[in-house]
Amino acid sequence: MSAVNPVGTALPTSLLPEFEVPQRRFHVVEAPSRRRRPRLAYGIVALAGALAIVGAQMALSIVTTQGSYELSSLNEQQRTLTWQKQILNDDVAGLNSPQYLAANASALGMVIDESPNYLRLSDGAILGSGQAAVGASSVDAIGRATVPNALITDTPLVTDPAATIQGVKPTPVATPGPGGTPVSNTPPALTDGLPTPSTH
Description:
By secondary structure, this protein is mainly α. The chain is built from two helices and eight strands, in the order E-E-H-H-E-E-E-E-E-E. Among the domains are: 42-96; 99-113 and 136-169, no CATH class.
């Protein structure tokens, strides 16, 4: 092999600088170590953990939903009890009214005396005329209340459950119909809709 100088003539090979060719060192590669198969216990633990997390999440969701239903039910129950309390308070207010007390006193036979008597508790002396009231009261507590009280209109009196502050409740009288059968005073049931007046 010959090299070419710039002039174009070939140079002898002995004049060329010698280059060292590096020697490659080869060595035997060890066989790769075999990977261990993952143990079955680790897989089971991981799967059980995942299932436990999913189960806990579902249980919490169910408990939360059930709690909201119970809360709604308790709120409804509280509303109902509040309404019942208001109704009972109205009933107690009606039973404490002076009209109802006066009506019950009149039904028991008490009358209003024109000249009242007083009892002095210190010595037991009676102040006043000392005579019992006779006759009827000038105030009629039953049937003619000056101011009507809607809370006690239908409340029965203590002595007569059939009577109210408005007087004795009228009982529906059944009039005999044809053939002697009693006929009720209530109107017949509407089965064909509302009745309409006849127009021209």
